[in-house]
Amino acid sequence: MAPRVRQYTGPYERWVFGQNLGRPFSFPAIRDWSSRYFAALMDSSGPLPDVSRVKFKPEPGADAERVDIRYPPLWNNGQGLSVRPFCFYNPESTSSTLSEDLGDRIDRLLETFDQVTEVSDELTGRKTRARYRVNFPINPLSWTQEYDASAEVAGYQPQATPPKAIIAVIDDGIPFANCTYLNASGRTRVSHCWLQAARSNGPAPVPFGREVSNGEIDTLRLTHGREEEALYRAAGAIDTGLPEIGNYLRRETTHGAHTLSMAAGKRLGVPVDPSLDDIEIIAVQLPNSISWDTSGFGKEMYMLSALHYVFDRAKCIAQAHGLTQELPLVVNFSYGWSSGRHDGASEMDSAIQELLTSRRALAPSFLVMPSGNTFEDEMHANFQEDAFKDGEISIGWQVQPDDSTSSYVEMWLPEGLDPDGYTFEVTPPRGLTCDTPPSLAVQGAPRFLRGDPRDFVNLSIDGAVVGQISVDKNRGTRWRAMVALAPSTPINMTDNEPPRWAAAGRWVLTLKRTATSEPLPPDGFINVWVQRDDDPSELRTGGRQSYLVELDKPPHMKPALPEYTQPLDPLRGFGSMNGVANAELVTRVGGFVQSSGTPARYSSAGGLLNTTTDAPATWGVQVAISGVSDRSQTLPGTVGQGVYSGARSILIGTSGAAPQVARAMVRALAANLDPVSGMTPQQYDAPNPVKNVQLKARLGTYKTPHLWAGG
Predict the structure, then answer these.
(1) pLDDT for the residue numbered 36
(2) pLDDT band for position 274 (50/70/90)?
(3) In the prediction, which pLDDT does 114 show?
(4) How far is the C-alpha of 87 from the C-alpha of 36, rounded, in Å?
């Protein structure tokens, strides 16, 4: 029997945590759940829970126990922010097990928080409750035993000369001891590095993981010399006992090694560049589980905590150097996912916008993110009003064989649309029939005392649950229909349950409406996004990317050269923008080929709509700046530096373009210049207006000179 609909359970939570749903296919920390340490988000403008008042009853009738709630170092103490990260410990007896009732226990914990976070509306007098989201678990070995967010960072030493700007990188596999980050005096420029998944080593000013300061890095370098692998083991950055950190830094290169070197490293084989000494480095290494999971869910607490940490430590750096003002700050975060709202109103987008707005009032502050790499992957479709035929629209969803991870697709209705009469249906591949009709009325989704309006139906074939369909009003403002599918290859289950899997092939998603249903508004449209599900080679998840298919068109080869035409087909790369980079103040970076100046084929773009005029109209956020992501058609990728000193790295994608933009911006700010000084304004003066609009949606307003960090 599948878990009931709980007060706080959204579509991803229900699938990922559901023992008889998607939990057996989740990554080990959830699949083999043993941790009682949770990451979470609070979505409310009210005060954070008073940790002294929160008590939890593990079972009905049991004595209440105090919940250990922790807030990471919060920028401005979290004041004036509506989305904030926190983590907590479930004080239940460690002798019991967490299995199918996991959701119930989480539900009771969050209900406990509600009791101390209710806020009275000044106008109506009604109580409002916070909206909570439970994220990935925290390994018990990473939980800091004595946490004090106000404590000084052990070993931190101010530089002899105050820095003029700060560059921060949030990524995986951070090689903080690489000699490319040494200043002219041989000391590290990495002032603070938070290894979020590392084993805790005692009292610390971070709630989990381990923080390494510049003084500790310099001491480790003196102790271990050129034995950098031994150094990383001693620092807890290599730990075979923790799957969330593991042996990742034993690799020759990592994603984080490449982006950090592009953003802040010296070039190999060239003299020292003294100007880099003016720029301090802050780094955050995310858990491996951030890349493992394919849902796009559950990562926000770690990501948002990383941003708060960077902002807080930047403030500490300024104070330690006796500065009365904040330093200019540029953060590179070469990460993202493909689905989501794409309207700037998700939890992460809202939190990012609030943080940047708050800090920009004090000093120049920029968050640089890649546009994404899915332009050609057929993972996005856009439907305007004229796409409805006989009251419905349909799109095919091709699920590949031998996919070892769950697959997800989302369909978003325009905000403000009355969904009365709209119904979402799913049809399995030819020859298969679901046990119960996989259909949900959007307007019929029940309301709950807590959480969003939502409804679920399990996809069952021959008695086996192979997926879930849902409708929910995300954050109470916008309707979403969604499908989650089990892997398409048999996976060994727990508790002697026989294997179950979803069929590979073409699933069909259909949105129907009645003759009296409200049509899409003139400026409204329906978007479909497939969630990213490829296989990070270093993690070996066995994921294979699903994609969308237009039902009324035969398969066709992609043209060798881009076609600048209107109207665009529903299935399009325009609108494939990184799903977590939609806050207005984010600097979005596309990629271009250095030898030709043309967009990289995979580089994602802002949204475009068909119009009756000469050129399409834009919607949503757009690419601001482009950087080199490929050297040429025959030399793909950019060259950076690897994990160990002297190693090189090649990375293909807009993740390699973004840190070049961040590097150019922080160096300009350190020189007291405009952040885009030194960049070339893009010229769009082709006689074809469609080409101009489409090129700008991919390349943005400025182009950054290539910064080859590999030497």
Answers:
(1) 78
(2) low
(3) 62
(4) 11
Looking at residue 512, its amino acid is K
* Average model confidence (pLDDT) across the chain: 87
d(CA 384, CA 400): 28
Both structure tokens of 33: 């759940």
- Comparing 194-198, 212-216, 401-405, 536-540, the range with the smallest average pLDDT is 536-540
Phi first, then psi: give them for residue 16, nearest 5 degrees: -70, -40
- The Cα–Cα gap between 317 and 327 comes to 8
Confidence class for position 653, pLDDT limits 50, 70, 90: very high
Encoded amino acid at 194, one letter? W
Q: Is 386 exposed, middle or buried (0-12, 13-18, 19+ CB in 10 A)?
A: exposed
d(CA 342, CA 344): 6
Asked if 561 contacts 599 with a C-beta cutoff of 8 angstroms, the reply is no
Give the separation between CA 59 and CA 65, rounded to whole angstroms.
11
Cα 225 from Cα 207, distance rounded (Å): 30
Residues 6+ apart with CB under 8 A from 559: none
- Give the chain's end-to-end CA distance (angstroms, integer): 59
Minimal CA–CA distance to 481: which of 518, 511, 437?
Answer: 511
pLDDT of 34 reads 65
How far, in Å, CA of 106 to CA of 216, rounded? Answer: 38
Distance CA 558, CA 560 (A): 6
Q: Is 591 helix (H, G, I), strand (E, B) or coil?
A: strand
pLDDT digits (tens, 9 = 90+) for 496-533: 677 889 999 999 999 999 999 999 998 999 999 999 88
464 Cα distance to chain centroid: 31
260-295 per-residue burial string, b: 16 or more CB within 10 A, e: under 16? bbbbbbbebeeeeeeebbbbbbbbbbbbbbbbbbbb
**What is the C-alpha to C-alpha distance for residues 147 and 124, in angstroms, rounded to an integer?**
39
121 falls in which pLDDT band (50, 70, 90)?
Answer: very low
Q: Which domains does the chain have, with CATH numbers?
A: 11-138 (no CATH), 139-376+573-711 (3.40.50.200), 382-557 (2.60.120.1290)
Strands (E) located in 172-318: 190-195, 210-213, 279-285
- Look-up: residue for tokens 């930047």? 314
Label each residue of 62-96 as H, E or C. Answer: CCCEECEEECCCCHHHHCCCCEEEEEEECCCCCCC
Q: Which secondary structure element, helix H or strand E, spans residue 467, and what is its range?
A: strand 464-474
Strand order in the sheet with 505-512: 439-441, 423-427, 505-512, 392-399, 547-549
Q: Which of 183, 245, 187, 196 is nearest to 216 (CA)?
A: 187
The identity of residue 457, as a single letter, is V
Q: Two tokens at 706? A: 């290539």
What is the pLDDT, as a whole number, of residue 545? 92
Record the pTM. Answer: 0.94
Residue 394 · residue 621 · CB < 8 Å: no
Q: pLDDT tier at 13 (50, 70, 90 boundaries)?
A: confident
3-state secondary structure 474-496: ECCCEEEEEEEECCCCCCCCCCC
Mapped onto helix, strand or coil, the DSSP state of residue 231 is: helix
Contacts for 201 with CB less than 8 Å, ≥ 6 apart: 210, 236
For 468, the enclosing helix (H) or strand (E) is strand 464-474
Which band of pLDDT confidence, cut at 50, 70 and 90, is reported for residue 539? Answer: low
Q: What is the DSSP letter of 387?
A: G
For residue 1, pLDDT beyond 70: no
Spatial distance between the Cα atoms of 20 and 459, rounded to a whole number of angstroms: 12
User: Are residues 11 and 468 in contact, defined by beta-carbon separation less than 8 angstroms?
Assistant: yes
What does the pLDDT look like over 166-210, one tens digit per residue? 999 999 999 999 999 999 899 999 999 999 999 999 899 999 999
Q: Is the pLDDT of residue 134 over 70?
A: yes
3-state secondary structure 437-453: CCEEECCCCCCCCCCCC
